[in-house]
Amino acid sequence: MAYIASVGLGMPEYEVSQDEVKSMFQAFFKNNRKMNKLLPVFDNAMVKTRQLVKDKQWYGESHTFAETNAAYIDYAINLSLKAIDRCLQEARIGEKRFKYNQIDAIIFVSSTGIATPSLDAYLMNERSFREDVVRMPIWGLGCAGGAMGLSRGFEWLQTNRDKSVLVVACELCSLTFQKEDNKLSNLVGTALFGDGVAATLLIGEESLYQSQLNSNSPIVYKTSSRLKKNKLDVMGWDVTQNGMEVIFSKNIPKLIPGFWKKHVTDFLRSEQLPMEKINTFLAHPGGRKVLEAMEQSMDIDSIPLRYSYDILRDHGNMSSATVLYILKKWLEKSIQPQSDIETALISALGPGFSSELLLVERDYR
User: Fold this and answer.
1) Residues with catalytic annotation?
2) What is the C-alpha separation between 5 and 209, in angstroms, rounded?
3) Which end of the chain, N or C, is more open, meaning fewer C-beta atoms within 10 Å of its C-beta?
4) Could you tell me the pTM of the whole model?
């Protein structure tokens, strides 16, 4: 098992409403009648606000892939450092904050820009991390990346039980926006996606710091990964001369009742855990229809998914970072569970087509 010590966020400067984004999109494609008929997508997305790294004027201008990727590297470093700083400030070890030189491994997850050296190397140069930190940069996992980053951190701690892992998920989706791309997937992506960075600290069960964590720090007990073959075209990027064009299939919700539900039920069965024991779903909200498909397929109401709906409403879909935002919302919750132990299932879907699950518990006694 592994302990979740804290989550810190790095939020961009500019916050815009869904109405503002809709107006921007309408202006960009004002000569496309087909796009105008599809504008209700913005009204039905259940997103009210989101954060962006650039002001509205920037998105109406043309940019080369080199320009947008340079912006990605600059903002990714800045916001990741903010997220890490806040994460370690909140990770109290007794009365002291967790220090950079107490980190043993860094997992850096992103899919919205490229950098070599990978950005974890830049981050290590900006803070007092040790030189022998294990680095695990992960690219290309999309919306599943945050949950997969947690899983890989958990797995590393099973063989390094006295260590600590910092998982950073950084996604600046808005920088990939293509104002010349009039495909439906670009419309849906624009209605949903925002920018965000989050960092999570995981502590091994035999760490010297484990006993000094908050008494109700969540514990990760088990993880599970699954890939549905021959679904490579469901989600991802189409890399063009202008940059990354989003691939976002309308069929994603249709994969929930079969593929995702079977993954969840198989996972719970392997843990001899009945569905009724899951109090909370910390599910990455691929969109409103994805969350509703989860409710219907598992025969649950919106209450177990309330944190997913809250983050979708206030921040949009931030790809891999979203599930860590949801995790933080759960950590800060004021609602007390009906029982002493709360069992949660972290869930995320991504390109491939892939599914990631983590079984987590909090003890309030």
Assistant:
1) 143
2) 10
3) C
4) 0.94
Domains in the chain: boundaries: 2-212, 219-363
Q: Which of 187, 255, 189 is nearest to 227 (CA)?
A: 255
* Half-sphere CA count of 111, side-chain side, radius 13 A: 23
Contacts of 277 (CB under 8 A, 6+ apart): 343
| Residues shown for the chain | 365
Q: How far apart are CA 146 and CA 108, in angstroms?
A: 9
Mean pLDDT of 129-140: 97
**Placement of tokens 């976002």 in the chain:** 248
CA distance 219 to 165: 14
Tokens representing 270 are 């392997």
Question: How far apart, in whole angstroms, are the C-alpha atoms of residue 93 and residue 113?
Answer: 34
The domain 219-363 is placed in CATH, from the list 3.20.20.80, 3.40.47.10, 3.40.50.300, 3.40.50.720, at 3.40.47.10
CATH superfamily of the domain spanning 2-212: Thiolase/Chalcone synthase (3.40.47.10)
The pLDDT value recorded for residue 87 is 96
φ/ψ bin of 327: left (φ > 0), alpha (ψ from -120 to 50), beta (otherwise): alpha
Domains 2-212 and 219-363 alike in fold = yes
